[in-house]
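Figure 3 (text version): structure tokens given as input.
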């Protein structure tokens, strides 16, 4: 934890960033589905991933999204990748920027992974743009 923040700060700021990046609807669904068993994990990701990492000032949100997309492709985490394509759009990444990330991934992570990522990204971008009315 950064010395200037309390655990409560990290949780509340993390929840705000998580909502901004993933959407209120997504976070509301995740919270509604939380059980006694999954509550510690929900707390962990809200406090650490969103409250400690995504709130750091060193990178802007589009850059964090680009890094996250690449990491998810590298590990074949396709459900999370789909969610973070929408998050990248919400964070201000253009369709062209997402495309560039996927082209970069093709070279460094392999064409089959990038091929799969392009298919998922195209579907998620269309769904996001339809839902948000943000077609490019």
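Below: residues designed for each position.
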């Amino acid at each position: 934890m950064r010395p200037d923040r309390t655990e409560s700060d990290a949780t509340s700021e993390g929840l705000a960033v998580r909502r901004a990046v993933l959407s209120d609807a997504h976070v509301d669904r995740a919270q509604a589905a939380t059980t006694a068993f999954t509550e510690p994990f929900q707390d962990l990701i809200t406090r650490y991933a969103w409250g400690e990492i995504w709130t750091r000032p060193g990178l802007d949100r589009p850059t964090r999204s680009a890094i996250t997309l690449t990491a998810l492709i590298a590990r074949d985490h396709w459900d999370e990748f789909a969610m973070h394509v929408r998050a990248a759009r919400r964070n201000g990444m253009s369709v062209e920027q997402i495309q560039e990330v996927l082209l970069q991934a093709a070279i460094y992570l392999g064409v089959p992974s990038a091929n799969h990522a392009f298919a998922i990204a195209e579907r998620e971008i269309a769904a996001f743009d339809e839902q948000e009315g943000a077609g490019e």
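Residues 50 and 120 are 24 Å apart (CA to CA).
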